[in-house]
Amino acid sequence: xxxxxxxxxxxxxxxxxxxxxxxxxxxxxxxxxxxxxxxxxxxxxxxxxxxxxxxxxxxxxxxxxxxxxxxxxxxxxxxxxxxxxxxxxxxxxxxxxxxxxxxxxxxxxxxxxxxxxxxxxxxxxxxxxxxxxxxxxxxxxxxxxxxxxxxxxxxxxxxxxxxxxxxxxxxxxxxxxxxxxxxxxxxxxxxxxxxxxxxxxxxxxxxxxxxxxxxxxxxxxxxxxxxxxxxxxxxxxxxxxxxxxxxxxxxxxxxxxxxxxxxxxxxxxxxxxxxxxxxxxxxxxxxxxxxxxxxxxxxxxxxxxxxxxxxxxxxxxxxxxxxxxxxxxxxxxxxxxxxxxxxxxxxxxxxxxxxxxxxxxxxxxxxxxxxxxxxxxxxxxxxxxxxxxxxxxxxx
Length: 396
Hints:
By secondary structure, the chain is mainly α. Helices cover 72% and strands 0% of the residues. It is built from 22 helices and no strands.
């Protein structure tokens, strides 16, 4: 018997609502979620969308992660990922203690190459491998940066903090992700790097996107663009600027501001036409492909699921595109297909998400919410659908 229908997001919303002695009508009124949508989400009749999750969390004054059930403790324990979180947390705590006398760091060139390898590992979906290496590298590079005080050392440390953020956010530890971002900004300031400063505001805006605080997210995007104005006109500035516009497009879409969303998409496309595919520039996967992938996401955020599916049909993912980004895209496509009643294609897209980056897909909220939405109709789906639920950790 599959447990996910009994512990789906709607069920957690109901439990949290009852703990606060609120009626369904009260949460609907406080959140702005239509009453029928809210009740059907609680019952598990329809899947919880990111907009509904964030709105319900605000109404009940809890974190989005609490509504979603993150982090997924049982699965993390099964995959032996839970034991890797504490060392990451500890490595982020020593940032201001100066050089560790018991650490003799390797050369900056070697540390830089290792930091780049971790960025590549995240994009390849190798979360466990990256999580196991981040703490030691952070501590070693912290000592190197405090010893040399050079710009390259601080840039390398900022990159490692970014990888710590990637791991924490993908595994659902949003508090740790926030700390990692603060450390990234701290190192970027010491390197006096405006591009990294703009990147920091982009990642920070994403945390507000997840929490449904769209106005603050927009302000952070604006700040990021302003900071980037202090950088030179090199390609990396253009890439990060374009990515900020893509983040702003999704932010506007989730806030139900379609005009603003498509304005940002248009500007991102203009920039991407100039940069071409620049997936490895700051490992942001920016380029024409990412613009089209974000177009699918924006249409889905606007509840234009039919248009999202049509747009996805024309997206061609390059063979060398980052697996983590491709897997995320397949999860978004699966959600849109589910909402248009295309159940078998939706399950196929979930399989594509797992095949492309299994470690990421297992912990991806959209994968889980889409699976929950499909579960009620599983008799129409292949037997392998049930084994997919077992893989997600949705079985006793």
